[in-house]
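Q: what sequence does this backbone want?
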């Protein structure tokens, strides 16, 4: 079956792109693969800031679950959704996912906010 990779940073633009991908999946009878890639920010301050990698991943997992449920509800479960939350470089992880999945299409939308700016 065809697969569409949807790269998301959970911004409004990315959520809109995911909804578009869901509509596309319905039209061409494809499944979705939701991908979120995060980086552990490096902060250089005089005052120590505690940033736990587990907290960042847990937050991403919660957002991914919410997005998956929203898309499944919108489509009445007419396609499968696989999810992945990975730590690393976005472009490297997207390339790896594309090489492994061989998608029909890749859909993404971003506001351009980095993890550091969101924190």
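A:
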């Amino acid at each position: 079956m065809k697969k569409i990779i949807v790269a998301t940073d959970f911004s409004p633009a990315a959520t809109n792109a995911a909804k578009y991908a869901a509509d596309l999946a319905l039209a061409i009878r494809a499944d979705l693969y939701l991908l979120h890639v995060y980086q552990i920010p490096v902060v250089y301050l005089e005052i120590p800031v505690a940033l736990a990698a587990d907290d960042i991943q847990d937050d991403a997992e919660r957002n991914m679950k919410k997005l998956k449920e929203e898309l499944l509800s919108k489509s009445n479960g007419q396609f499968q959704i696989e999810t992945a939350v990975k730590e690393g470089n976005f472009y490297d992880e997207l390339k790896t996912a594309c090489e492994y999945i061989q998608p029909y299409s890749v859909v993404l939308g971003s506001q351009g906010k980095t993890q550091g700016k969101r924190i």
